[in-house]
Specification:
Layout: H1 2-17, E1 20-23, H2 34-44, E2 51-56, E3 69-73, H3 76-85
Antiparallel strand pairs: 1-3, 2-3
Length: about 100
């Protein structure tokens, strides 16, 4: 009964999180299109995953602050591939602050 339902719910939540990538350090602009920024970063990595959703996290920041971007991908295999390549971003001038 109840224990099975809770186990299924927790498994579903864990699976959902395994498809998330959080990107830090991306400059924030007024009227920005987050999807374009995410696509640009992934293209630097040579990746074109299917992005289900992407959005800034947290409250509107003070000038100069950068909120993280939460990206939900179609599968956790894409997440692993991107995380494997993420260290290469520091070598790309446009992504020096991104991690």
């Amino acid at each position: 009964g109840k224990k099975i339902a809770e186990a299924v719910k927790s498994a579903v939540q864990a699976e959902d999180r395994s498809r998330n990538v959080i990107i830090f350090g991306v400059e924030e602009q007024t009227n920005e299109i987050v999807e374009e920024k995410v696509g640009e970063i992934f293209s630097y990595l040579g990746e074109r995953p299917c992005v289900i959703e992407s959005s800034r996290m947290g409250l509107v920041p003070k000038p100069g602050q950068r909120r993280p971007i939460k990206v939900v991908l179609r599968g956790s295999d894409h997440v692993k591939q991107i995380l494997r390549k993420a260290k290469n971003l520091k070598d790309i001038a446009a992504c020096k602050t991104v991690f």
